[in-house]
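Researcher: Here's a chain I'd like modeled. Treat it as a single chain, no partners, no ligands.
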Amino acid sequence: MTDVFVAGETLVDFVPDAGETLREVDGYAHRPGGAPANVAVGLARLGSPPAFWTRLGDDAFGDFLAETLSAEGIPETHVERVPGKTTLAVVSPPGAEGPQFGFYGSRDATFGFDPDAVPVGTLTGDADAAGSPADASAPPWVHLGGVALTHPRGRAATRELLSAASATGCPVSFDVNYRSDLVPDGAAETVSTAVREAVTESDVVFCSDEDIAAAGLSTSEGVELARDLLALGPHTAVVTLGSDGALAVSSDAAPWGAATVRHGGFAVEAVDATGAGDAFTAGLLSRLAGDAGETPGIDDGNALREALAVGNATAALSVRSVGGMGSIPSRKEVDAFLTERE
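Model: Modeled as a single isolated chain. Structure tokens:
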């Protein structure tokens, strides 16, 4: 698989016990989380640990997250320890409609990436440290999350990373993941503009209808939404549809050719959907950045269709247990699941 460089937040999910509202919950379990972190760990479990640029506070929760990433095989090279408290994401009770999050802690420590610290050497292959690509002739795939755009330094660092990826010829995927609770008062237009710019400069965009509507980019849904996104610049748009699976639309500029495909997902007994979208992204990205990306010119939709199947299988397996990162399956489990369902 092509090397992947992931950038974004790592935080702690507080997962509640049973209860209709947070006031009725008796206790919480702390679990590692953060969309980019979940994707990075998902890629590692699917067989290819990526380089991961993230920031961890210098508190006990930061220690917990650092130990977790290390245990998952994520190189420590770009895992920064910074002063400040780790951000906590309090997950709504199981009775709520879909996983919702309330964020607490230091935004600076988790989302305040330093624009001057963008690890450009990892993108060019000049870095000697662990986690850099082994072959400078094959630039790594860069994957970014949208939450960092809610912080001024996070926005600036994202711009620098996108610029470096473009200059070095790295394919870029961007998960919109718009979180209105993290947008400071009076900054909605600024953050929306930053999201639009990131979409424009990316090759592949992951999103839901809700993400795009909340960011103010489009009010369309499904295939029309994907086409609206392609008009902004990406060659592939992937729209998640919850229990209905996902769809993808690509243009002629995509390595896998122009296609419009949909996969209805897999019926499983769901326990917790926290992190299912990140599991999907990791599964699909493992295909697009790997086998599918090595066979340019496919124009019959097979590459995208197979990638959607892997993404949906990874997500389906992840919802059968509680937690985001901890529920992501291995490559062996995904392959066995797909063989069984076929």
